[in-house]
Structure formats: C-alpha cells, structure tokens
Amino acid sequence: MSTAETLAFQPASGLLAQLDLLRIELSGAVAHIRLNRPAKRNAISDTLITQLHTAFVNLPEAVKAVVVTGEGDHFCAGLDLSELVDRDVGEGVLHSRMWHAAFDQIQFGRVPVIAVLHGAVVGGGLELASSCHIRVAEASTYFGLPEGQRGLFVGGGGSVRVPRLMGVARMTDMMLTGRVYDRDEGVQAGLAQYAVADGAGFAKALELARRIASNAPMSNFAVMHALPRIADQAQDQGLFTESLMAAVAESTPDAKDRLRAFLEGRAGKVVKS
What we know:
By secondary structure, the protein is α/β, with parallel strands linked by helices. Helices cover 48% and strands 15% of the residues. β3 (30-35), α2 and β4 form a beta-alpha-beta unit.
C-alpha cells in the first residue's frame, strides 16, 4: 500500500470514535474497522461483539465498503473464554443471539465487507470471517474450530455460515478432531477467496473495497441480500426471486446511466486481468 493511500485514512468521529475495542478509520467510500485487543489475540468479549454491532449499524452514509482487520499477530482467536460464566439455558440462547445480531448486521447490512485474515482465525473468529462477503488470507493464517475440545458448540452463526463455505463434512471433521487448516488448505476448502503474502492483505482488501464501492449500490445490495437467499430456495422460487431482484436493480437511475455509458462507448469492457 502506498504512503498516499495510508495517509488518506482518517480516524472516525462521533459515536464510532467512542468504541474503544475497535479502531475505525475512513477514507472516502471505504471504512477500515480494526479489532483492537491484540493482547487477547482479538478474542471476542461481550463488549467487543456489542461494539461491532454498533459500528455496522452506524456506518456513515458515505461509506460503500468496509475492510475488517485485526490488530497484532492474529485476526481473531474466537470467544474470550475468560468471560465464560455459568449461564442457564435462556441466558445461553440470548448470548448466542447477541452474536447473531452483530454478524447478521455484517452479512445483511448496507455495504459489502472484506475481511483480512492473518494468524489465528479460530472459533468465533472464523464465525466473524464467514459473515463477511470476501476474505483475503495472508500466509500466516490458520483456521480452527476447537469448540468440541472445549465442551462447547458454535454459537455465533458458524453452523449456518461455515458449511456454506466449506461443506458439512469438512466442518464436522474440524469440530470432532480439532483439525487445523493452514492458509492454503483454507483457500482450497473455500474459507477464503484470495491468498496473499504476509503484510499484503490490507492493500489487496483496499483495492477490492474501492472497486466494490464504485459499483451501483443496488447491484451490491442484490448480491449481498438476494444471492444467499436464492441459494437457499428451491429452484423455481429462486428463479422468481431472481426475476424480481433483476427488475429492481435495472430500474434504478444509476443502472440506466451506466448502461447508457456502456452503449455510448464510455464504459470499459470486460477484459482478462
């Protein structure tokens, strides 16, 4: 990443600046949200999950894409086990649903989200990563789901999101045996879409975020909200949903302007990069 791009980011103000377990910076249409508990390997506490939810609910209107990273040597080592207390069943359900609300706001929020992965992406860290739309993995990245060895079960949406990336059989193996995937195994299994060298993740994510931010907002919204729901529908229902979403997207003034620019030769054609 160039010095100019680094300097372009400025600290967020207002409510976002008060979230002490996050570092949030803005650069034009891109927000950078950094987990900021390096001494705890960015383990997710109740306060951190609440602050993540607050951050994504209150993104400035100008933001069109978000990059999520972790401070220090690890992206996120999962649930902060030091906060694990005796809960009755009702309290346990509500705690899990608190995580669901935060990660749903990431996956089904207003803008696409790119996660930059390095070091530990374990347990709740993998659940967080799987709620993002694109994952860039540096060479140091490793993936694990140690809940079986801790006497736990995933509670942050992992049983829903992770199998959609890697399949039920692979997730079952990880949870039953404690198997850890390295970066390349994770990419091959579908846990990340991009593999980069250590230290190169943010620059790649920023490149992708700025490209995404230039898309038509309704097209991005359709990909985020309609595509995963269509994938869960029966074929005839999915095709009907697709027709409705396609009609909505192409009817926006932005779409009409972009189509006109293409027809008039003012827009780039698809070429192999």
